[in-house]
Design brief:
Layout: H1 3-23, H2 26-57, H3 64-67, H4 76-81, H5 88-100, H6 107-116, E1 127-131, H7 134-147, H8 149-153, E2 155-157, E3 163-170, E4 189-195, E5 198-207, H9 215-240, H10 258-263, E6 271-274, H11 283-292, E7 302-305, H12 307-312, E8 326-328, E9 336-338, E10 341-345, E11 353-357, H13 359-362, E12 363-378, E13 383-396, E14 402-407
Parallel strand pairs: 2-12, 6-14, 7-10
Antiparallel strand pairs: 1-12, 3-4, 5-13, 7-11, 8-9, 9-10, 11-14, 12-13
Helix pairs in contact: 1-2, 5-6, 5-9, 7-9
Amino acid sequence: MKKDEYKTQRDGLMKVANDAVTSGDLETARKTRAQIEALDAQFEDEMKELANITALEKKKIVNLAETGSSASIKGEVIDRLIAPKISDDAAYPTVFAKRLQGRNLTNEEQRVFDIFNPLDATQTTSSHTAVIPTTLMSEIFTEASVGHPILAAVNMTNVKGYVTYPKETSAGDAAWYGEADTLNDSADTTGSLELKGYPLSKVIPISYTLKEMATDAFLIYIRTNIADKIGAALATAIAQGQGVPGQSDSFKAQPKGITKELEGESSTPQVLTWTATSDEPDYDKLAQLFALVGSGYMNGAAVYATNAFIWSKLALIKDTTGRPIFIPDASAGAIGRIFGAPVYVEDGVPANAMILGNVRAGYRMNVSKELVIMEEDKPTSQRTNYVGYMMVDGAPITTKAFAYLKKSA
């Protein structure tokens, strides 16, 4: 079995397994997982046997009469034949780190790296792409979500290419009908939300000296830096991304944020404003804001704002009896509650503003190309640039899940 055939079959089975889990068909997911494991085992056995045969071809004939019966026969043949039999998935994170550090890989480690990173004719020795291990990917997004609660709440999918969601543009309530009545569905209209994929990248320069750190420490360093930078960009895009630029716009195509969508509606029904002089946020203003979110979305709604806005504005608001409406509460990662809704510190939200809403129900984000690391060596400056790269798009699927309070210009 050729490497590209193995990769194609495995990718197909992984998609079937992921789709089955998403749809709740656990029986199909279990059967497909068994197929994937069998395919992995078959390919691994073939590759190991090929390595052993290749090793025999290169084996040197040793004349014991000349060297003596106590001669020590070492070299490539022995090393390859006694290579440790390790799980590819478990081994890849270490192999990945060693490759990025520029360290020599054993034959077994190179085999593992090649499985996850098929050869690409466009890559060079000074610039190539390395697929991020699944475990590291999970750790990156977990760490990014801890620092950005709005990212943790978003409903994110991993579908290659474009993905379309039905989008309700208006809706009427159900009504009672008699047997002879004609059902009226003219009040309900639906549209669609198409998510594409826009490049998101961040350069992490590392000096040659820093590359010499222990492999485990190097992995943590890479994970923390990517999580910090990519997480901040994604959270900002969800909160206030500009979307697709028009002819006169200078920004790059990106996901469309909640605030951009709400401010783009006619008459901006989901937006309230305040000024520094006459009507700073108070009890009445927040009550009006909470009234804007659709009733079906309040279960799961939360407040997102910068740390400065929370403590300089929201924490100072009092009810009619003089008691603060902000109740400190560190449960579920929040720092407090207002009118029962958890309050999260989110630096992706604009300053002097807050978003109230149900992000999981009201926003969709899709990663059309998973996060990879592109490596570019810079000998003259004695550093290596590691570029985290992915393609992603997102947008609100309904504005009724959100309300936005901001300071007027």
